[in-house]
Amino acid sequence: MSLLLNPEQTAARLPWAPLVDEIDALLRDDSVSVPPRIVLPMAGQASLFAMPACDARTAMAKLITFTPANVGTDRPTIQGDVTVFDVATGVRRVILDGPTVTARRTAAVSALGARLLAPNVDGPMLIVGAGVQGRSHIEVFAAALGVRDFRIASRRRASAEALAEVARAQGLRAEVVDDADAALADCPLAATCTPAQDVALRATPRADAFIAAVGAFTPQMVELAPALCQHFAAHGRIVVDSRDADHEAGDLLQAGIDVGALPTLADQVRGDRAGERRGPVLFKSCGWGGWDLAAARLGSATTRT
């Protein structure tokens, strides 16, 4: 009998450090197969996402809705499920909460990117956006990379204050800042976790900066100013999470950058770092079914028979 897990139960099966390691392991697994995801546009700029993937032992299908109109309401923008199957028997093992999987795997991918690419992981870390992803990035960078000091910027100061309180309750240092661009000068680490409806970061980064940009995942969405993206291309390097970013990375596409020529996180994990150079690093994440498969592998491990 399969298990239907709620958000709390799903999170408990996806502890931060093991999830980061599972994503790393997945990128080294030659049996992984991830077809392009299906994105079905719906009314009101909403979308239905269908994302299947499998390896030699585990198969999963993620079905979620993304509803921008829910921003600012008590309804989540992402809703749905991740159903996990056993490849050998076809048996359904578990159904994980889709928004929880999305929140945790996205932040864990950023942490893996920082572990592999960041010139300086000492912090402080700037979090731009005080929603679910802002919180997830604070938690994973603290748990998996040991960052203890955070700066939080949000268009709604009340949201930033609330997230800062959550971070302090976890024993972390957290300060609300009004100007994200000004704070970037003091932060070697940053993550942009906004709804990506407008530019949220413009400032020139430090030479030892690592920025994970996760909010924009369509060609129309944007968080980073074009000049900022072009600065990374000229003076540092840009790495994308997967080849899906070639047609989804709105920040980079709107900056006129040839996304298809950029290396992926898999290239870094597998040691293919041709042309690598020093300087600030931009890690552009758009999402990929492989990240959900990594979460499915970890989240279903206790239900294998």
TrEMBL record:
Superkingdom as given in the UniProt entry: Bacteria
The record's listing under PANTHER family reads: KETIMINE REDUCTASE MU-CRYSTALLIN
Q: What is this protein called?
A: Delta(1)-pyrroline-2-carboxylate reductase family protein
| Phylogenetic placement of the source organism | Bacteria, Pseudomonadati, Pseudomonadota, Betaproteobacteria, Burkholderiales
Q: In which organism is this protein found?
A: Ottowia flava
